[in-house]
Design goal:
The protein has about 400 residues and is an all-alpha fold. It has a single domain, classed as MFS general substrate transporter like domains (Growth Hormone, Chain: A). About 80% of the residues lie in helices and about 0% in strands. The longest helix is centred in the last third of the chain and has 30 residues. The relative contact order is 0.17. The N terminus is likely disordered. It is a multi-pass membrane protein. Keywords: Cell membrane, Membrane, Transmembrane, Transmembrane helix, Transport. It comes from Actinomadura verrucosospora. One of its GO terms (cellular component) is plasma membrane. One of its GO terms (molecular function) is transmembrane transporter activity.
Amino acid sequence: MTTTETDIETVRPAEREGRPWAGMGAIVLTSVAAMTPAFGTAALATPIEHGLGVSATGFGLALSGFFAASALGSFAAKRVAARLPVPVVLTAAGAIALAALALAAAAGNLAVLAAALLVAGAGNALVQPAAGRYIGARVPRGRLSLATGMVSAALGAAPLVPGLLAGFAAGPLGWRAALLLGAVLPVLAIPAAFLARTGRAAAVARPPAATGGGRPVGRVLVLWTLAAGLATIGSNAAASYFVQLGTHSGLSTALAGLMQSLAGVVAVAVRLAAGGFADRAPRRNPALVIAMMLSGAAGLALVAAGSPAAFVAGALLAVAGGWGWTGLLLAAVMRLLPGQGERAGATVQIGLFGGAAVAPLAFGAASSALGVPATVLIAALIVLAGAASMLAGTAALRREAP
């Protein structure tokens, strides 16, 4: 027997349920701050490469280290998030991001930059498990998908501030100063973390068999984590090489950059809207995740066509629709693991950041060997494989339902 919607009984803290949103704001701010070292470094790639005298391959390896550290750090992070108060965990994540930005700004060679990004990735690993624990303890069941959509939207919004710093600060002030200006986000996030108190009670499950320790639930989690990783590889490849794909399709660099910003805004809106909509029928979250993954694969197939019109339509589907599923998947996993929000957050994070670590290097190598159109089609097939894994996990869950 596995968890179904009716199996879960949530016990709330003594605080009123209607007041979890200040804490959610703190989590969103910390999520953005924890990602700033990676996105800030990525946005400043050209001046950093010139300033440190490193190759694009070496820089890509250092950047991938951030996502790999976030994925691998999830195993320890879920234990930390379960034992320490959520504000303490979020404060630690903000402080690590602040230290990593300072270290990256002072880097004199690639090794120091890579070390800064590894440290930042370890700090970033703390955020999703802490967010899962807070949501499980404070957010009413009827707003669970909206809350996870907010966390997901934070990941979509994270590149916006670094992009502004790269556009307006790096030129007159230099890339080191631009990174230090990015430290404003963790400085703001650290004191805000104390808004995310969970109270004395937390979510628990009824009956005991629904806590997620059995083999059926474990199999579902493996398949869903694999789905997240595969879908992220395809979608992240499109996001990482958005401008390059746009210029290959005939757009100017400026227009492709504008399209990237627009796609980012649409992605944030889709994640929030999808979360609000999914709360009306939470049992359908896995089906919505599958549909969004399929839309992402279709978008990548359109991008591979190579025309400007196909790129515009396909890119919006691939980056916005294809990334809109992340919050819904977190909500689905939280319903599968009642009372284990930190484990739910870590599970989704392993897939997301594991895929993100692989995507840029894999896409770069494949496009050099096979060409851009063929590589984008391969990315679409990888996303399809992710949707198939998600479907297999959902089917296994339904077979075990009473």
